[in-house]
Each structure stands twice: as C-alpha cells, then as structure tokens.
Design goal:
By secondary structure, this protein is α+β, with helices and mostly antiparallel strands. 38% of the residues lie in helices and 20% in strands. A hairpin with a 6-residue loop joins strand 12 (279-283) and strand 13. Helix 2 (64-73) runs parallel beside helix 9 (229-242), helix 3 (100-110) packs across helix 5 (135-148) and helix 5 packs parallel to helix 6 (175-188).
C-alpha cells in the first residue's frame, strides 16, 4: 500500500536529501498498509541465552510447561523442538521449519563450524555488540544474504536504488566498528572496506526496529485458561532468579518471556520521521514480520511518517535525541507548535 518517493521534507545537516514513502490509496484509522519481513534480523544476545528461538524470524513455539522447564532446569523437551527444523551443533543456532530453506544456507555461510579461530572471531563480534549495538551482527547477516544471492558487496552497493538510503547521517569513527569490520570479513571470508562497513552499520543503527516478540502459544495458553497456580509461581521464581526479558500480564501476576531482537526493513527504513506520526508498526504472528497500521485518515499521495523517538517526550528532549542519533533538527508541526508555547 506504500511506494517510495524522493523527499526533501527533512533537510539533513550534511545537506543530503532523504527518502520517504507515500500512500497509494486512501486509508482509514486502524487500516493496514501491508506487511513486511526483515532483510536481516538477529535476537539480542542477552535474550538469546534465555529463550532459544529461530534466528531467522525470531519465532518460537514453546508452551508454558516447556518454557518453565528451560528457564528453571536448562532442559528442552522434544515437544519444544517441534517447530525447529535445524539446530547447529557448533554454535547452537536454531532455524524454524518456515525459514529452513533460506535460513540454513545463510547460517552455514556464517557459522564458525567449530574452528577455534572463527569461534573466537564470533565471540569478539558478540563482545563488540554487547558494548555498542546489535547492528554489526545484523550487518553480518545482511551481507551474508547478499553473498548467498550472488551479489558483490562493496561501495557500488550504494548505487543500487534499492539500497540508496544507506547513505545516511554518518557518525564519528569508532574503533569498535573497525574491529567489527575485521571480524565480519574473517567470518565471511570476504575482505570488506572499512568505510563501506561503517556506512552499513551507521544505517542499521538509525533504521533497525527494536522487536519484542510475544509467544503466540503461551498467549493462547493464557486465553484458554491453561495456566495453573503452580505454573504462575514457577514462572515468577524463574524470573526473580534470572530476570529474563518479559512482559507483565494482569497487573504483574506473572511475567511472560518474550524474544528481544532487531530487524532491518527496507520500506520502514525509507520512512521519514514526524513527532506526530500517521502510522505505527506492530509485530504479527509471533515473529519478526511486521504490519503497518494507519493512526488517522491518510489520503492517497500523502506521505507516510513514523516517529523515530517517543513522541510523548518533551520537545527539547525529542529534538536533541533526533539530532544526536539521526543528524537532523526536527521541524515537524508538533515540534514547531511545542516550541512556540
């Protein structure tokens, strides 16, 4: 329901032009603009150790009993693996049946295969991500997918209209990015240019979506009233001991484990910002697939805009964060109105 257009609504500090999206149809509040799956995704490292999931779409299908068993005893039942097609004996990565065809080949291209030198490289990359952001790992997955499709990865990638939005606000060089480039080059057996890799990471830092994936099986257990008092108490005890990523249900009765991760979506990456957005996104089907939803009436030809920050924050806080993270001073109507009050 959306298409790309050149947009100069945001004038970036470096003088470059941004990109944007406009709607191709009239939309009512609550109406869907469509669905999108990520070009690359990865679970957060701290989340991955608590709740194993498909590394390709972040889906998992454990019921409450299996989840509690894993969180308390670090054991996985056969039932818990009913959704898993592939599990790597070297690095523990799981791929679900839906993602098997593409995901298994992609993983094998990035796997260290038990080789000590490559295993240490992967650990180095994870330490970098824990200290900075997940973007270097997302970049590894993205670049591996390009290689899997036979693409050449280098600065010429930015000439491809599909990836022209990668030339975004550039940040100061960080030693961690250069080290990550070296590690990713080693893991992919492909030399990467530092500036090229930095631009990819900078773009991902500014465009990746932060995901909290609820387990549909567990939510179904709740809706069907299958959760016993013993399950509630076991889950609370596990949470108190391990503090896994969770959502709270029914006024803090029990915390429900969720998968935390990041994903890169090319359509959303092109959408411009407004502190008064007309669309929002939500995760669907317990996976990294997202749906764009209209927040108010949108006319055909009208620009579709998201909020990059919490639009309920004070105006100076919003504008400061947008300038620091995305390199532009927000001049949306809400900011101008708030500044004049």
């Amino acid at each position: 329901m959306v298409r790309f257009v050149d947009s100069v609504r945001e004038e970036k500090l470096d003088g470059s032009r941004g990109y944007g999206c406009i709607s191709i149809a009239d939309l009512n509040p609550g109406q869907s603009l469509g669905f999108e799956s990520p070009l690359a995704t990865a679970p957060a490292l701290y989340s991955r150790k608590f709740l194993p999931c498909c590394e390709h779409c972040l889906h998992h299908a454990w019921g409450f009993s299996d989840t509690i068993s894993f969180l308390i005893h670090d054991t996985e039942s056969e039932l818990a693996h009913s959704f898993v097609k592939f599990s790597c004996k070297d690095c523990g990565v799981r791929i679900c049946r839906v993602c098997a065809k593409e995901g298994i080949n992609l993983h094998r291209r990035m796997c260290h295969h038990g080789e000590p030198r490559l295993r240490e490289a992967r650990l180095r990359l994870e330490r970098i991500c824990l200290a900075t952001t997940e973007s270097p790992i997302i970049a590894l997955v993205f670049l591996a997918s390009l290689l899997e499709r036979g693409c050449t990865i280098g600065v010429e990638l930015f000439n491809d209209p599909k990836f022209s939005y990668f030339l975004r606000h550039e940040r100061a060089d960080r030693p961690e990015t250069h080290e990550a480039c070296e590690v990713v080059s080693l893991l992919l057996s492909t030399p990467l240019d530092n500036l090229f890799f930095k631009r990819v990471v900078d773009t991902f830092d500014q465009t990746n979506l932060y995901l909290e994936i609820e387990n549909e099986t567990m939510m179904g257990d709740i809706a069907a009233g299958k959760i016993t008092h013993a399950m509630e108490e076991s889950l609370k005890a596990a949470y108190a001991r391990r503090l896994y990523p969770a959502i709270l249900h029914d006024d803090d009765i029990y915390p429900i484990p969720v998968v935390i991760g990041s994903g890169h979506y090319p359509t959303v990456a092109r959408m411009n910002h407004s502190c008064d957005p007309n669309v929002e996104w939500r995760s669907v089907s317990g996976s990294a697939t997202i749906e764009m939803i209209a927040l108010r009436p949108i006319a055909a030809g009208e620009e579709v805009v998201l909020s990059y920050v919490d639009q309920t924050s004070p105006v100076n806080e919003r504008r400061s964060k947008l300038l620091e993270l995305y390199g532009f001073e927000c001049l949306c109507q809400k900011c101008l109105s708030d500044l004049n009050q």
